Amino acid sequence: MNKRARMVLAATGATVALAALAAPAPRADIRILAHRSGDLAPHRFQAAADLGIFAVSVLVTWSERLGR
Question: Rounded to two decimals, what is the model's pTM?
Fold first, then answer.
């Protein structure tokens, strides 16, 4: 392999490594908190889906007696 081919290969590798480290993880985070602060055991529903390029995390909590 000649010098120019090695330089191109090194530059390509450095660019790919920089792009992989600089890109933030794609993630949507949706939270709905509707429980009383004194509730020691709020009901909770949590789900997550990660498809590689697209990730979603959902957290929902609520109190059984929210209106009382």
Answer: 0.41
| C-alpha–C-alpha distance, residues 53 and 57, integer Å | 14
Distance (Å, whole) CA 7 – CA 11:
6
| Distance, CA of 9 to CA of 63 (rounded, Å) | 58
* DSSP, res 14: H
Alpha-carbon distances of 55 from 6, 17, 40, rounded to whole Å = 37, 22, 30
Which residue blocks in the chain are alpha helix, DSSP H?
3-22
Q: What is the pLDDT of residue 60?
A: 81
- Which residue would you say has higher pLDDT here, 16 or 24? 16
